[in-house]
Amino acid sequence: MNASPTSSILRALPAEHGERLMHSAREVSFPLGTRLFEEGRRADRFWIIRTGTVALDMRVPGRRAAVIETLGHNELVGWSWLFGPHTWHLGAEATSPVRAYEFDAEAVRDMCQADPALGMAVGQWVGDTVARRLRSARTRLLDMYAPYGSGSLS
Questions:
Q1: Which of 19, 32, 134, 154 has the smallest count of CB within 10 Å of its CB?
Q2: Secondary structure element (H or E) that encloses residue 70, with its range
Q3: What is the dihedral of CA 11, 16, 18, 19, to 10 degrees?
């Protein structure tokens, strides 16, 4: 594939690791309303958004799925592929037409196992993404349910 690594990978991974990861990517498109994955199903791929938006959602019994976060340009969609048991913790839907780089999770895990430096870099990148999203979700929940709102810790 003749594509330069996205800026999110360039910021997060050493150049040689970002380039190596991008060589395993393929370009894909999703129309508005496409479900990328469903909570509880096998997590066998992940994406980096080039254009468009994807909503992460969570099933709520007896109600519509609750949107947890909306992701856009250069953001990682999916982290469950890296951590066993490799099942999605949330669902995801294209909220606009999306163009993205798609990665085969097993192939990337194999690359990471074969090259511990790459594995460490990818693990750090995905871990940072998970931590940032957990902080964001905590703030949203506090804003919605805390008696005084504002989930900031100041």
A1: 154
A2: strand 66-71
A3: 130
Residue 79 neighbours by CB under 8 Å, 6+ apart: 46, 126, 129, 130
Task: Give backbone dihedrals phi and psi of 102, rounded to 5 degrees, phi first.
Answer: -110, 140
- Residue in 132, 126, 125, 133 with CA at minimum distance from that of residue 12: 125
Distances from the Cα of 9 to the Cαs of 77, 93, 124, 146, in angstroms?
13, 22, 11, 35
Give the Å distances, CA to CA, from 124 to 12, 30, 52, 118: 8, 28, 25, 10
> What pLDDT digit, counting tens, does each position of 82-104 carry?
999 999 999 999 999 999 999 99
Crossing angle for the helix pair 15-23 and 105-114, to the nearest 10 degrees: 140
Q: What tokens were used for 76?
A: 């990682």
Q: What distance in Å separates the CA atoms of residue 27 and residue 99, rounded to the nearest whole number?
A: 7
pTM, rounded to two decimals: 0.84
Assess contact for 103 and 46: CB atoms under 8 A: yes
Could you read off the pLDDT of 54-66 as tens digits, one per residue?
Answer: 999 988 888 888 8
128, containing H or E segment: helix 116-145
